[in-house]
Amino acid sequence: MAAEYSSFVAIGDSFTEGVGDPDPGGDRYRGWADLFALRAAEQWPAFAYANLAIRGRLFDRIVDEQVVPAIKQSPDLVSFAAGGNDALRPGFNPVQLSTRAHEVVRLLKASGAEVVLFTCADITPHIPGIAVLRKRFVATNDAYKRVAKRHNAVLVDLWNDKAFEDPRLWSEDRLHLNTFGHQRVAYDVCEALGVEPDPAWSEPLPHMPRPRREMNGVQWAGKHLAPWVKRRLTGKSSGDTVDPKRPELTKVK
């Protein structure tokens, strides 16, 4: 029998904030965590949800800014997804990430929360030239697998979900999931936690007349890669002026 949860805090970066999935009813992003919370509230009407994630955050800053505020709210379910932005930068150290991830999950579990961890989905088929970083993504995923096993956490394995090979699940920038991609993550999280997914999430995707993409590699680089590189060179982040969209636990419905 699946466990019952009453409160959920989501921790992380753009993946958990929901970047790529515009909220139909507002001016922010929705994303898999919102979608999961809505389904959980259907099953458990008193279900409360907070989302502390901010786009662009690196692992250490996610830990420093989000873990203690999450624990202080005493949720019985926490998701933690961090490290993807680190893997894209020079000096990435998977051993250091693994060591700190163990400590973070230990603290979260000691607070009484069930913890959900993720392997990242494979972006290498979708972004030109990024295959050289594939070993970093594999190392990060291996670290989270070890952490999940050691601390008996729930692992949602997106890397081995072949659905993410489909370009229709990715945004124009090819780095973030789109609405369909976030629905797929929500589906996987629901499956892992014994929550009934929305049937619409498993419906066939709309037909894409061309196998790949709305813009060619040069156009993509000018619109998406160049601004990203500029932020790295100037020490800026896409989340510098962004606050958590849902900082406190509140009932979903």
UniProtKB/TrEMBL annotation:
<protein>
    <submittedName>
        <fullName>Lysophospholipase L1-like esterase</fullName>
    </submittedName>
</protein>
<feature type="compositionally biased region" description="Basic and acidic residues">
    <location>
        <begin position="242"/>
        <end position="253"/>
    </location>
</feature>
<keyword id="KW-0378">Hydrolase</keyword>
<dbReference type="InterPro" id="IPR053140">
    <property type="entry name" value="GDSL_Rv0518-like"/>
</dbReference>
<feature type="region of interest" description="Disordered">
    <location>
        <begin position="231"/>
        <end position="253"/>
    </location>
</feature>
<dbReference type="InterPro" id="IPR013830">
    <property type="entry name" value="SGNH_hydro"/>
</dbReference>
<dbReference type="InterPro" id="IPR036514">
    <property type="entry name" value="SGNH_hydro_sf"/>
</dbReference>
<feature type="domain" description="SGNH hydrolase-type esterase">
    <location>
        <begin position="10"/>
        <end position="184"/>
    </location>
</feature>
<dbReference type="Pfam" id="PF13472">
    <property type="entry name" value="Lipase_GDSL_2"/>
</dbReference>
<dbReference type="GO" id="GO:0016787">
    <property type="term" value="F:hydrolase activity"/>
</dbReference>
